[in-house]
Amino acid sequence: MGETIIEFLVNGAVILVIVGIFAYSIWWRRNQLKKFAEAQGLQYDVPEHKQRVQQLLDTRDDIPLFSGENSKRKCKHALSATIGDAFFTVCEISFEFLARRSSKSSTYDSYTVALIISETSDFPSMHLEPEGWGWKITTKLMGFQDIDFEDHTPFSKKYVLQGPDEDAIRAFLDKDKLDALTAQPAYFIDASKDILLLYYKKSGHKPKKLKQLAESANEIFKIMSASA
After folding, report:
1. Which value, to the nearest 10 degrees, does the dihedral of the CA atoms of residues 48, 54, 60, 63 take?
2. 3-state secondary structure 67-92
3. In 3-state terms, what secondary structure has residue 113?
4. pLDDT in the model for residue 163
5. Mean pLDDT on 108-115
6. 3-state DSSP percent of the chain in helix, strand and coil, to 5
7. What is the mean pLDDT of residues 180-184?
8. 133 and 217 in contact (C-beta within 8 Å)?
């Protein structure tokens, strides 16, 4: 009997320690993000801003990252600001892909996103991602789209480029834009109409990585917004 009570107390103590560590890690990350937001002149987790991002997640299937079917999407840890006619946020987005059969469990993905919405922008719908050796093989074997520029091989070697209107994309990405994008660090990039976003796969990145993502989003927005 005594051993049962001791075992119960030990197990209870272990559970409390685990719960305490988990709760502290959540508090610590929120505190770090709040400090980072203040240092960057951003607001942290403003309900109206999160709601705006959530609306995009639910309605903007023209954005490749948001176009997955049979999934629940959620925005959290939004660091945001309105600058002129543009809305800017760095946030984490989680996707729960619902099982099609009751015998299977749902799967989850998460991303860290820098998102810019500008009323004066009109980007063609496109998706860019860093091109690795795996993509080269996949595009050849599976016939996946990859829009290459024969007169700008550095860009074409750096990025896989996809989109529904190839002619519009080629007209939009002139030599100056291709040069400037090639000189930037490689990110996953989506653009469509009034929206530009850059993202890392996974969430939980340190403020230093968030700052790099935010700065790159600002630079790439300037590149993409430049007149031909």
Report:
1. 110
2. CCCCEEEEEEEEEEEEECCEEEEEEE
3. strand
4. 93
5. 92
6. 45, 30, 25
7. 95
8. no
- Is the distance from CB of 127 to CB of 64 less than 8 angstroms? yes
Residue 100, classed as helix, strand or coil, is coil
Tokens of 59: 């309605």
Identify the bridge partners of residue 197 per DSSP, sorted by sequence position. Answer: 115, 190
Q: What is the mean pLDDT of residues 79-93?
A: 91
User: DSSP per residue over 153-166, as a string?
Assistant: HHHHHHEEEE-S-H
What does pTM read for this prediction? 0.82
Q: Which two tokens stand for residue 76?
A: 């959290």
Using a 10 angstrom Cβ sphere, with 0-12 exposed, 13-18 middle and 19 or more buried, the burial of residue 191 is: buried
Res. 34 pLDDT band, cuts 50 70 90: confident
CB 210 within 8 Å of CB 80: no
Sign of CA dihedral 34, 37, 42, 45: negative
Inform me whether the pLDDT recorded for 24 exceeds 60: no
Residue % of the chain over a pLDDT of 90: 48
The per-residue pLDDT for 21 is 62
Cβ neighbours, 10 Å, residue 69? 7
Tokens representing residue 218 in the block: 């600002």
Q: How far, in whole angstroms, is CA 43 from its chain's centroid?
A: 18
